[in-house]
Recover the amino acids of this structure.
């Protein structure tokens, strides 16, 4: 779905912009764009973690892993990215709390939750709908192929029987 390495890169870039601006004395309101980018990337990372946990390990998926990575590799990337995200969150909490007060941190958390909710309703719902549609199409193709194979076998049996009629013993 989302690449955790890319997501943590986006979050890190946004975080560095926030940190530099706050350390330069700018108000937290001046870095709303970076805060939104950071929160969006972290939200996507959380969703990636959720989806990685939900993945079923099947023979097919282990033979042909998604994005060339095994489930274990994906889990490790998510784990590492989440640890880095938590470190950034702690530092961000300190920056915001010290520069603008604890109420500003609570405002940020409220905004972050709104972003997550919005992404859940829009982006993630669409991705999940597409995934379900893809799975339905694959299932339909497998069923059609199985039915066509069964019909072909029956037809072939009938043709063989008609081509070589059983001898009559009169």
């Amino acid at each position: 779905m989302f690449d955790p390495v890319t997501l943590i890169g986006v979050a890190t870039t946004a975080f560095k912009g926030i940190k530099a601006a706050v350390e330069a004395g700018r108000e937290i309101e001046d870095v709303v764009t970076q805060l939104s980018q950071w929160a969006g990337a972290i939200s996507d990372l959380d969703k990636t973690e959720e989806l990685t946990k939900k993945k079923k390990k099947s023979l097919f998926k282990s033979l042909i892993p998604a994005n060339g990575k095994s489930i274990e590799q994906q889990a490790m990337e998510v784990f590492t990215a989440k640890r880095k995200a938590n470190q950034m969150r702690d530092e961000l909490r300190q920056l915001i709390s010290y520069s603008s007060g604890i109420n500003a941190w609570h405002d940020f958390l409220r905004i972050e939750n709104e972003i997550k909710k919005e992404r859940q309703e829009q982006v993630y719902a669409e991705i999940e709908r597409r995934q379900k549609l893809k799975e339905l199409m694959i299932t339909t193709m497998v069923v059609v192929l199985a039915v066509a194979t069964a019909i072909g076998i029956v037809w072939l049996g009938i043709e063989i029987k008609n081509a070589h009629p059983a001898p009559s013993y009169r």
Summary: Residues 102-163 form the longest helix (62 residues). The chain has a mean pLDDT of 82. The two ends are 71 Å apart (CA to CA). Residues 4-128 form one domain.
